[in-house]
Queue: 2 jobs
Job 1
Amino acid sequence: MLLPEHQPLPVDGPIHGAQHVVRRAALAQALRDRLGVGTGLVLIPSGEEKVRNRDNLFPFRADSDFWYFTGFPEPESWLLLHLQANGSLESHLFCRPRDPEREIWDGIRVGPEAAPARFAIDHAHDTAELDAVLAPLLAEAEALVLPAARDAELDARLRGWMGVVRAKSRAGIQAPTQIVDLEAFSAPLRCIKDAAELRTMAKAAHISAKAHCAAMQASRPGKAEYHLESVLLSHFRAAGSQSVAYPSIVASGPHSCILHHRAGHRILLPDELVLIDAGCELDGYASDITRTFPANGKFTPAQRDTYQVVLAALDAATDATRPGAMFSAPHEAAVRVLAEGLLDLGLLPEQSVDAVIETGAYRRFYMHRTSHFLGLNVHDVGNTQLALRPGMVLTLEPGLYIRPAADVPPAFWNIGIRIEDDAVVTEHGCHLITRDVPVDPDEIEALMASGDQ
Ligand code: GLY
Ligand code: MN
Ligand code: MN
């Protein structure tokens, strides 16, 4: 039977095979440099489809490392990189074979025949051949790099593979002596984004920012949290993003003080805040934006005063985000401003700002960190003990969360505010890629007044 021709895969995005070749070469070089080995193997699984219920599956999304080094979108696939003693690097992709019967139901597979040319891979095989291809390579590799101690099934297969090679030690065959977690090598590469990645992330950020604008404009008392979520999701998909980067948080009134409240059925009331933390995923790359606004389009005085403190903390964190600064610098800058603000608002007993910071008194109202790396994962890989470098992308997301309490004036009860932008570290500072949705309270009120209220 003649199988249908391939259309270009929509998930190919702007990142092509040539870039994956460069990334794999950089990985191989890092291995040689840091492990000091001549021969080695890198093994990365794509992951498998997971059952949601009975015969109904969750949408498949490839493992981030697998995606980063291959751009191959199908489940049950593996990347095997072979560093050879002569210094060359060979790439093997294992993927599902073509299957006319299954493809009628599930869609066209790339198959091992077409994969090398389409994905800039040296050799492709049926996934069923993995053990057979791996065994002789493992017998002459000094190091094996793979996602270690993360997945019980993979760990069990690793024991099996190693058992086979170790059993041949009397025949003079030496099993790899170094088994190393892939993240130690993939994280430093993934942490510095190339131009194509930055373009994709800016596009994802733009889509998400516009979705936030639409949700603000759709807000009014009487609507449910899920109404605003539906506006976000509609914009994400209409703009071509494949997924949310994480479950959307739409948190009204008291829910705004629950950090990861999923959009629910609560009805928005006048004079309360709505906190939306939502972002789309585009071609595998996350965006992550939070905005907080009044349900009825007008901040109360206590809401506005608190909002200004969080916005000032975001400004301070932005100023602190530059090459050479430690990853913790934006957090420390934000905490200082939030501590000052909590004293000014009368939410903490009189004391010095330093005392608020040293005793951690601010944590009652600000209990999370200000930043995480952003990339293929919303909480992306990267070493948070090191200094920032150009090409890194991190979030800046200060907040204040004020629950009802006897020592808190009622005007502040249930004010939960977080403002979150995505920052690209540049040569001299940082660039916020999420400012297509306003943060200024006057601009937010003006945008909401121009909506369909
Ligand atoms: N959206 C999850 C976070 O901001 O970390
Ligand atoms: Mn975040
Ligand atoms: Mn967020």
Job 2
Amino acid sequence: MGLLSQGSPLNWEETKKHADHVRKHGILQFLNIYNKVKDRQKDVLKWGDEVEYMLVEMDDKNEKVRLVLNGKDVLETLQEKGEKINPNHPTLWRPEYGSYMIEGTPGQPYGGTMSEFNTVEDNMGKRRREAASVLRMNETLLTVTSFPRLGCPGFTQPEYKPTPVEKGVSKSLFFPDEAINRHPRFSTLTRNIRHRRGEKVVINVPIFKDKNTPSPFVEAFPEDDGEAARAALPDHIYMDAMGFGMGNCCLQVTFQACSISEARYLYDQLATFCPIVMALSAASPFYRGYVSDIDCRWGVISASVDDRTREERGLEPLKNNKFRIHKSRYDSIDSYLSCCGDKYNDIELTIDEDINKQLLDAGIDKLLAQHIAHLFIRDPLSLFQEKIHLDDENESDHFENLQSTNWQTMRFKPPPPNSDIGWRVEFRPMEVQLTDFENSAYVVFIVLLTRVILSYKLDFLIPLSKVDENMKVAQKRNAVQEGMFYFRKDVFKGCNPVLDPPSTAQNGVESEAKDGEEFTLMSIDTIINGKEGVFHGLIPMLNCYLENMEVDVDTRCTILNYLKLIKKRASGELMTMAKWMREFVARHPQYKHDSVITDKVNYDLVHKCDRIAKGLEKCPELIGDPVNRGK
Ligand code: GLU
Ligand code: MG
């Protein structure tokens, strides 16, 4: 989840005093990087995936499953056995928000050759086995986006009680601080978000109304001092801590582009896919022990780190704050970055005018300047005493401080100072899938998509406000089948980002965008599989690309299996994880159709998930029957 520094974290009051300092030096650090590497060309295409895992304990005797809070020890052991003794170790392990979470990536990025697609699943399998090998007998590693009983009494091992009243960083009624990673970054973020906001975060997820669900659905919170009663909405599952969001797991992919303009082009193009691929990866229907009416985690995390004050949220007139801010720090992107995107930038963009001017004066073009000036409307949320005064030429911590706490659907990443890493973009909306096969399929699908976009110079841009509308639709229950999404009809007829440098956009050359003609509402099936007379379909495009590429037989077979999964998920022939979990619960003999996921139901569900993930059980309705699985 970003940069980890060691040292003494400052509280919110102290951090606030240094906010302008962090922003000022953050911008200088960005400019230093930019000036050094802006003209860098010919970096090769590299990419890598990130998978987030939960550590769980299966208590077979009591038929209970709990999250194990030993992520720190597991991580240390994995690093000691891996990267610390072998710089070429095939896996890398990193901490994540929950103390029951770890994150794994391949040891080296993948390169541009097709045969590497055939190693992705293998590497994910290595990670899973490697991590599993250091766990205790009854523990296992799970790639489930949201743990169904997160925040329910006794959901952790060891068990801890939340501390809503006494000292604590979350003050949650449900989520104990011990379930937060012990590295000070995570607790500091949690506490400072709450202090900056002026109250606990508020997450309300609509409950799924089953035939025996009370209506209205209203909960009592015995330990509440009044805050929950004010914040909780009827017919919603109420949550009050960062852990309910950042304690979820996802699947991300980062690309290195060959130049800054290619990175900006990819950033924009991929942004339009975020809602589509998120809906296609939907895997999180349950929250705090209840069946919800959403299928994706996005809005939950968004609310879980929403540090905006009442003034910034527009509930009170601006007095102590500078800006009215429309979105949480964890949200969809607010502006396109490539020249082609300029005319589709139709979201009101709050920017720090002084920073924007400073960037423009330093020679940065309008689109990049406003992007950075928008990220920098935020305050730093965590700052370490020892890390206030930095060498702006050779360090970038202040820039990264704000960059890494703007958790948007896409992230545009400048190279670190003095490194041979190029300009990168990160694709962040996907939910993690149950098996390595599925995770590989989603990752390979996105990587192939970038190749096709770059090779055929495709243009998928639509007004950004429409992408935002798509984001809302994407999270709804069964959006993959029922949702209609704005999508561009003719993707072969856009502007050419490499021939049109950003300056043309700056000069305001408006080409007429005949809105309503360029894009239309489509189902995910149409977008992915195509529909005569409406849209060509992404899978047919990828297939066409593959036919023209030299690919060995084995790799081709693997890729086709992956694309088949994507294709069938889009058409509804296969279920999403969200749908599959819903059906499992609905059919469970002990489920009372009251939207409650009991310990027993949760245990049976997780048990089944674990067996499928380990390849001990097939699950054709979710995964199909891929030919060469498990090789
Ligand atoms: N776990 C977060 C999510 O589900 C992402 C954290 C990160 O940026 O690594 O989106
Ligand atoms: Mg992560």
